[in-house]
Amino acid sequence: MTETESIAYDVVVLGAGPVGENVADRTRAAGLSTAVVESELVGGECSYWACMPSKALLRPVIARADARRVPGLRQAVQGPLDAAAVLAHRDEYTSHWHDGGQVQWLDGIGADLHRGHGRLTGPRTVTVTGPDGERTVLTARHAVAVCTGTRAQLPPLPGLADVEPWTSREATSSPEVPGRLIVVGGGVVATEMATVWQALGSRVTVLVRGKGLLSRMEPFAGELVAEALVEAGADVRTATSVESVTREDGTVVVVTGSGERIEADEILFATGRAPRTDDIGLDTVGLEPGSWLPVDDSLQVDGTDWLYAVGDVNHRALLTHQGKYQARIAGAAIAARAAGAPPLETGPWGAHAATADHHAVPQVVFTDPEAGAVGLSLAEAEQAGHRVRAVDVDLASVAGAGLYGDGYRGRARMVVDLDEEILRGVTFVGPGVGELIHSATVAVAGQVPVARLWHAVPSYPTISEVWLRLLEAYRG
């Protein structure tokens, strides 16, 4: 028989990934008692199956590619990567899938960790079923924050479960390099993992249903990344659907829409994400299980005055850094409401408003070349009704790019609002451009006038001199 204990807190957080950790950090800093519930590893998807392991895998791949562009250095790095060493480095960055360090951090901020599956069992109430079946009822005086993130979404192909396909989790944690890998999808996970495994020795085939890669960015981003993947040895096929997948004597067999048969040792489906809200008791508070949770700019779930949905589950921006940003906003809002503070600053760019989610979401894709963007693409800006102009510059024309490496290829675009003379979006594609994105984010989020940007002088000779070239091209 299970025993039930009841404990009251000011705030209960469902999910101990980076988002839940940051909500807990902010509410604890405000003096609120906080419980965090986690059914897997403290640190969540990002720490063990997404951001950290993927970037640990990608770093040696990108470093080698950059070195091969430098005269006098390329000869020293002509051999293959040491796959075993790369995988061991990845394992170090995931703490070998042990969460002791992150648990210690939670203890350090004074939050209580409850391990087990947490479900809402009514307003302001979460029941946690622990590993041994024991139950603990947590009640929240002020707020419950759902920070449970997302899971990989697989297509409804008959018999797919029997194939045991990879999702992002298997792709970032595999202990060995598959001889042949099929990657289904053309987004961030697909392109990054194709980059990794091709470089580590796998023969990679990328199957994309649409017209190209990275469809949410400017078209040239996906084009440049696809060119580089093909040059690296990958087979990239666009406008290609998967009609069936089977595993025959250990070999994965894909039949495409054109009837072509493709074989591999493993297959990765990077075809979207679904919210982890199907079994957290949403029905007990009048919400649809398995749904995304719509929120206002303070991250409070629509129609409630106590429930918050922070990070991926609200479907505003499925990115760790945006989720952590939302967590800081939500934590401040929860604390202010708990203290009975004056009306919250929920207007644009207020202390309790996640305004950047609407206007200035940055993202970097760590492929070779890197692709980074913030704000709106040209098509998105036009669809939103802005009168805009796209300004493009060949990154190879910048002195810093030539110094970065021979044969540098890249492109930059800024989307200028012609009525307000501010930037609606910026995109960079090229080696090393990930470090340029924050400057673009400041410009877009801060709505810096183009006339003022003219006086932000980039250092010479750096790749960031592209800002001067973009502004010169705009002024004509």
Overview of the structural elements:
The protein is globular, with a radius of gyration of 24 Å. The longest helix is centred in the C-terminal third of the chain and has 19 residues, at 320-338. The protein folds into 3 domains: 4-43 and 99-151 and 275-356, FAD/NAD(P)-binding domain; 153-271, FAD/NAD(P)-binding domain (3-Layer(bba) Sandwich); 369-475, 2-Layer Sandwich (Enolase-like, domain 1), CATH 3.30.390. Helices cover 32% and strands 25% of the residues. α3 packs antiparallel against α4 (83-93). With 476 residues, the protein is of the alpha/beta class. This is NAD(P)/FAD-dependent oxidoreductase. Keywords: FAD, Flavoprotein, NAD. InterPro entries: Class-I_Pyr_Nuc-Dis_Oxidored (IPR050151), FAD/NAD-bd_sf (IPR036188), FAD/NAD-binding_dom (IPR023753), FAD/NAD-linked_Rdtase_dimer_sf (IPR016156), Pyr_nuc-diS_OxRdtase (IPR001100), Pyr_nucl-diS_OxRdtase_dimer (IPR004099). Its cofactor is FAD.
